[in-house]
Amino acid sequence: MSDAFQKIKEVLAAVNAATPKTSEELEAFRIQYLGSKGMLKNLMEEIKTVANEQKREFGQQINALKQTAEDKFKSLKNSLDARADASEALDLTRPGEPLPLGSRHPVSITMSRIIEIFVRQGFSVADGPEVEHDWYNFTAMNTPEDHPARDMQDTFYVMDAPGMLLRTHTSNVQARVMTTRKPPIRIIAPGRVYRNETISARSHAQFHQLEGLYIDEGVSFADMKQTLLYFAKEMFGAPKIRLRPSFFPFTEPSAEMDIWLGTDTEENTRLTKGTGWLEILGCGMVDPQVLENCGIDAKKYSGYAFGMGIERQALRLFNIPDIRMLFENDVRFLRQFSSSIV
Ligand code: PHE
Questions:
Q1: Terminus of the chain with fewer CB atoms < 10 Å: N or C?
Q2: What's the rounded mean pLDDT across residues 217-232?
């Protein structure tokens, strides 16, 4: 075998042994073996020294060597490129992409604050359906079909579903809890309610209420007053409350609670129409008949209940001029609450 064949073997061994690790080393490898003045070019020249009958064989071996060197170059280049991409994607020192925070709805913020105040006093949250049966919304709550008190609450009835309606107050949850649980019961029921009312800046056909119910042996009006006074102080910073006699079919006696805001500021004067007092909620001792309707022994147990609207409180808390803004879902309006805590 001539020297030329021996050289091919040597170059092949060198190509196989080479281990370029960086892109610079790889480029040097390419120039050394595959470049226009590289070793393979030189080897080609050697064909002159090869006997005629071996030229063909020589050519084939050169081609095989060239293929080996090119394959090695390509696969090393691919893995170096891939490593470069990966290290770029995993640059842990780069600053993070800012994640825009969503915002909580002003009604939710207000609701959470109220819930928190009552949870602190031992109440737990109960839930009930918005599409409700007449019995839970009215009948159980002492408001039978022909009762004039139904006129107080214009109701949306569900078409083709006799006896079904959109609940007009969260008091349906009172009935649901009393019929399924035994006293002591101490719950609050936040939720959405519906009334067939003309929509204006001050009232809407859908809004939110929060109901409270406490039933045990020997629960008194004074207990209720204390719980509501604590709420007024925590929620509004109000120094005092006042309970005015009122009427609800499901409580006896019934009252409406005002909180003292005073007339020190122009806003408080306007809100309280110059009296210093702002009406916040309805309340009273649960009518014994309601307890009996729901299967609770009225001789043994007594209780109080209260219910309040959320939207008016939200308007006041955030200085929002129109209740309709709360239901329009205009993101420019809602984004303003993105930094609100709770
Ligand atoms: N359900 C009454 C309303 O919607 C509020 C209320 C609840 C009053 C519980 C007394 C007791 O106006």
A1: N
A2: 97
| CATH 3.30.930.10 assigned to 106-337 | yes
- Tell me what pLDDT residue 305 has: 98
Q: In this structure, are strands 277-286 and 185-194 parallel, antiparallel, or unpaired? A: unpaired
pLDDT classification of 84: cutoffs 50, 70, 90: confident
Ligand 1 centroid to Cα of residue 232, in Å, is: 17
310 Cα: distance to centroid of ligand 1 (angstroms): 13
Pocket mutation for ligand 1, best pick of 206, 211, 281 (most atoms within 8 Å of C-beta): 211
**Which residue of 137, 151, 194, 248 sits with most ligand 1 atoms within 8 Å of its CB, as the best mutation to test the pocket?**
248
pLDDT tens sequence across 281-322: 999 999 999 999 999 999 999 999 999 999 999 998 898 989
Name the token pair of 323.
């209740």
In 3D space, the residue among 237, 234, 288, 231 whose CA is nearest the CA of residue 257 turns out to be 231
Tokens coding 209: 């209420």
Q: Atom 6 of ligand 1 has which residue's CA nearest to it?
A: 307
Tokens at 284, concatenated:
């009273």
Ligand 1 centroid–CA 194 distance in Å is 14
Break the chain into its structural domains and give their ranges: 3-89, 106-337
- Phi first, then psi: give them for residue 283, nearest 5 degrees: -160, 180
